[in-house]
Amino acid sequence: MGALNSELERQRDALSLSKVVGDIPVINMDTEHTVCPVCGTGLVVEKVKVPRKVFTVAYGELGIRERVKKCPGCGGKYRSVDLPEIVEPGCNYAYDCIVEAGRLRFIEKRQITEIQSIFDGKYHLQVSCTQLRRLVYGFLYYLGRLHYQSTRTRFLM
Ligand SMILES: [Zn+2]
């Protein structure tokens, strides 16, 4: 995650400039491996996906371009391990948006419209009230799952 963080920090520093030109920073995300961990052959980029717009509390609006690498030796495919920790596949809102929306709603007891102005003013993210409600429901969903998993683990032990 270290390389990713420094890349994101660099992009964030460039963000004020990119806002002026009306563009969003695009970062490439792929596996950290350059050679196949199975057979040692050098990996090649097999597929470059169309950049996906992702809203993050930490870095604002980002374009994320995922690259899939393939091993010409054994055919193994490798993707970024960091990306699934940041955002759910196919989703445009990072997990930190879900956490922040849930925190503001349930810990700070904010109304959806207040959360909307905090997202706008503090994180420079323009999010609709409908979408914020979805994020808040998402927070409850993940919280519920976490709770279920921890009780289940305790039960099995
Ligand atoms: Zn291989």
Shape: globular
Low-confidence stretches: 16-21
Largest sheet properties:
5 strands, mixed
Q: Structural class of the secondary structure composition? A: alpha+beta
Number of helical runs?
6
N→C terminal distance: 32 Å
Tally of strands: 5
Radius of gyration computed on alpha carbons: 19 Å
Percent range of helical residues: 40-55%
Q: Approximately how much beta-strand content do the residues carry?
A: 15-25%
Q: How would you portray this structure in words?
A:
This protein is α+β, with helices and mostly antiparallel strands and 157 residues long. The chain has helices at residues 2-13, 15-20, 83-86, 95-107, 112-123, 129-156, and strands spanning 26-29, 44-48, 52-56, 60-70, 77-78. The protein has two domains: 1-90, no CATH class; 93-157, no CATH class. Helix 4 packs across helix 6 (129-156). The two termini are 32 Å apart. The structure holds zinc ion. Residues 36, 38-39, 41, 71, 73-74, 76 line the site of zinc ion.
